[in-house]
Design brief:
Length: 75
Amino acid sequence: MRNDEYSVIFCQNIKALREKNSISKKKMAEIWGIGLTSLSKIEQNILPPRLKVDIISKLSKHFKIKSYKLFDLLP
């Protein structure tokens, strides 16, 4: 799989996790520690040039999943 495919999967998983858990975009941005505009872009498959590891760690802890699962297709 190419890196850009992992990016798309990651973005799709972020949106899927948020919707599956009935979390608003505003609350998800707070959990993640990013702005609402940044979250909206990520959910549209537009990743920032550099994604900090601590952001991924926050999400994996909040949703109780392994960090690498965010880059794999979720069931």
